[in-house]
Structures are given as structure tokens and as C-alpha cells.
Design a protein that fits this description.
The protein has 119 residues and is α+β, with helices and mostly antiparallel strands. The protein is built from 3 helices and 6 strands. β2 and β3 (15-19) form a beta hairpin. α2 packs across α3 (95-101).
Length: 119
């Protein structure tokens, strides 16, 4: 009877989508019967042959607001302000925050450049 919260984001190649609304999932107690529904026979057969793993222990709950911590980030090849903001702040549209925190007048980055993110 533990509750966990998730956000999901789709990726299409290098284009990252927006995060979904927060979803709450509550585990069942061990003495509760479970009904499982399959979309087709093949999925059911695969599940019978390769049953899902059972989680023995669950780590402590972590806050969804993990994106808000101040950190430093070293620019890697192929990075852009948009991609860094998407990975570290949860949305590429927050690239302006990185620009402002680092007093950047341009979106050009150098590999190895250290940026303050989420500050």
C-alpha cells in the first residue's frame, strides 16, 4: 500500500516532448488478489513463459521536484542549452534560466564549459 508518483515524457529521435501530468500508482498489499489483463494471446503467452520480476525492496520515495536543485554541468559534444534544460530542468523551454544564471549573451557553448543549472 505504498504510493509512488511518476511523470512521463516521450522522445522522438532528438525531439523531446513535454512531461505528462503527474500519475499516482499505489501498490497492492501482498494478500490482495491481482487481475491481469492482456491485449492479445501472444502477450499472455510471453508473460507465462517469462513472468515479470518481483520487487523485493523499494527505495525511499524521492520528490518529483528533483529538477529544482542547483548544480553544475560540464558541456558535452552535441549539447545545446535546450537539451541541457530538458534533461536537467525537465523542459527545454527553460533554457533561458541557464542563460541567465551564467550571464550568457549567446546560445553557443564550448565542450567542457561548466554551467550553473537550476540556480
Amino acid at each position: 500500500n505504498e504510493s509512488y508518483f511518476f511523470k512521463v515524457r516521450a522522445n522522438n529521435g532528438c525531439a523531446e516532448g513535454n512531461y505528462s501530468n503527474e500519475m499516482k500508482i499505489t501498490t497492492l498489499s501482498s494478500d490482495t488478489a491481482t487481475n491481469i489483463f492482456y491485449k492479445d494471446l501472444l502477450t499472455h503467452l510471453v508473460a507465462l513463459l517469462f513472468p515479470p520480476a518481483t520487487v523485493k525492496s523499494v527505495p525511499q520515495k524521492q520528490s518529483i521536484s528533483a529538477f529544482s536543485k542547483c548544480m553544475t554541468y560540464s558541456v558535452q559534444p552535441g549539447d545545446s542549452l535546450w537539451s541541457i534544460a530538458a534533461r536537467k530542468l525537465g523542459s527545454g523551454s527553460k533554457f533561458g534560466q541557464i542563460q541567465k544564471s551564467n550571464n550568457l549573451t549567446s546560445s553557443l557553448l564550448d565542450v567542457g564549459q561548466v554551467l550553473k543549472v537550476g540556480c
